[in-house]
Design goal:
Multidrug-efflux Transporter Regulator, Chain: A, Domain 2; three-stranded antiparallel sheet
Length: 81
């Protein structure tokens, strides 16, 4: 039986389709990523200037445009065989 190859773009599209907003608060990034990325890790990446581009602050919360967060995630993902 042939093994199905993981398609990163399909996964990212499903994440985008499931999220109800154009932004993702840093405090919600764990939920957005299915637990793969924690808010603390993302805060550390931001401090190193290695986080998603285009972060904004809304009422004191750091938020990311959904598309920018997906692009950042794409750069960190790899399919395992």
């Amino acid at each position: 039986m042939a093994e199905k190859t993981t398609n990163i773009d399909d996964i990212l599209q499903k994440m985008a389709d499931a999220w109800p907003s154009a932004i993702v608060a840093r405090t919600e990034v764990s939920r957005f990523s299915g637990g793969a990325v924690s808010p603390k890790f993302l805060a550390n990446q931001d401090c190193l200037r290695m986080g998603p581009r285009g972060a904004i602050r809304i009422n004191g919360k750091i938020c990311y445009p959904k598309d920018a967060l997906l692009e950042w995630l794409r750069g960190r993902m790899s399919a395992r065989q």
